[in-house]
Amino acid sequence: xxxxxxxxxxxxxxxxxxxxxxxxxxxxxxxxxxxxxxxxxxxxxxxxxxxxxxxxxxxxxxxxxxxxxxxxxxxxxxxxxxxxxxxxxxxxxxxxxxxxxxxxxxxxxxxxxxxxxxxxxxxxxxxxxxxxxxxxxxxxxxxxxxxxxxxxxxxxxxxxxxxxxxxxxxxxxxxxxxxxxxxxxxxxxxxxxxxxxx
Length: 198
Description:
The protein is mostly helical. It is about 75% helix and about 0% strand. Helix 2 (about 30-65) crosses helix 7 and helix 4 crosses helix 7. The radius of gyration is 24 Å and the shape is extended.
């Protein structure tokens, strides 16, 4: 092989100064930028820890309440999971129409997880009903607005599409579930210190 060198480039990192911080956003100096980064990292860790704690609450609820769930619910949950995974793949540029999916194999591989998810959903729904927890119109509208900005689609068109395909109902259920989990998490956080001191 014969190679002719045309150009050499050297990547120079900018000097971390107050001017650098001001260029990155609405920061007066480098210390403000560092404080914002620390705050963001703290919130991300706090959010991850809360998510883990909520998952642990769900696992304990499911373990404490073992009951049979209709297989049609399990099939629907598997289908929702697979559709979500396909949407993610399509978002990454994968042509999902060329994937050869074996529904029986998918159902067999995901049935146990789907059964637990359905059981968790039914338990949380029962708790939400007992505690009179509902998603408000403003909360649903806020979520629609967020999706509208993300997908760059008019909110009215998005609402009509979501009403037709059932996504609006899923958004409502998701908000209600999150509010129920927040209540359970709050109650668990209140009782945890008393339990540990015994």
